[in-house]
Specification:
single chain, 264 residues, mainly alpha, Farnesyl Diphosphate Synthase, 2 domains, 70% helix
Length: 264
């Protein structure tokens, strides 16, 4: 592994994932840098897709090839190959992640809650599954579904936080059936019923996921802190009046730290 990759991984996490970066400080030292590198892989692939990078398909194909047992080609697959020498990385989770990225590339519509659950699993539940393998588990049968649920809950939180940004980009991740059932509009000041419905669904997934944190072999406090800080975004949406005004809900850093400090 090149030192430049690790420097980039640390800087990327701290620049674009501030909440996650705060939680990473609580991770055991012997896995912290590897978690930064994993985040770099997930983030660079996601950015390539979101930004319409000309090599996005090629990079996804490289990771898919590695996940299927093929050679590691390209930066992301090469990093995963190196990390797999230290951790039992679940290759099928990376294949599922790439499937979610391809959903974005193809503009696959989110029609109902099952569609959204599937998408959230692919792009974020898989990250939870990978993290569980890196941190170790006492009871994989129960820990893995819980880890996936945490990732799904966090992605649902992203969807609600980024409604306006996504609409500008021409993307809608709230299920069309839910929009219609709850009033028919995602416009600021007209989406309270939709947000109440979606926040309740995300909170249920958080509860399922949190029940599995004690099943992790280590890093429990770091994951619990990350979840608590991220879940606070939902509470900020509520405090802001359920989308009464345009823009994303932002939890002040001081409040994040206070929330994280309550985790034991």
């Amino acid at each position: 592994m090149r030192n430049a990759d690790l420097v980039d991984a640390r800087q990327t996490t701290r620049r674009v994932a501030r909440t996650f970066a705060l939680a990473c400080r609580l991770l055991p030292r012997d896995v912290r840098d590897d978690v930064y590198l994993l985040y770099l892989v997930f983030r660079t692939l996601d950015d390539a897709v979101d930004d319409g990078a000309p090599d996005a398909d090629e990079r996804l194909t490289a990771v898919e090839t590695w996940a299927a047992g093929g050679p590691a080609q390209g930066r992301e697959a090469s990093l995963l190959e190196q990390l797999s020498a230290r951790h039992p990385l679940p290759r099928d989770a990376f294949a599922d992640f790439c499937a979610g990225m391809r959903d974005d590339l193809a503009g696959v519509p989110i029609c109902d809650e099952d569609d959204l659950d599937r998408y959230c699993y692919r792009v974020a539940g898989t990250v939870g599954v990978v993290m569980a393998h890196v941190l170790g588990m006492h009871d994989a049968e129960h820990a893995l579904p819980a880890a996936a649920a945490l990732g799904q809950a966090m992605q649902r939180t992203n969807v609600l936080r980024d409604i306006d940004e996504d609409r500008v980009a021409g993307r809608v991740y709230v299920p069309s059936a839910t929009i219609e059932r709850c009033g028919g509009s995602l416009a600021p000041g007209e989406r309270e019923a939709i947000l109440r419905d979606q926040i309740a669904r995300a909170d249920r997934q958080y509860e399922i996921g949190c029940a599995g944190i004690t099943l992790l072999a280590r890093g429990q406090r770091a994951i619990a802190a990350a979840v608590a800080m991220y879940r606070e975004i939902l509470r900020q949406i509520e405090r802001d009046g359920y989308g009464a005004e345009p823009g994303r809900a932002v939890v002040p850093r001081r409040r994040k730290l206070l929330v994280a400090a309550t985790v034991r």
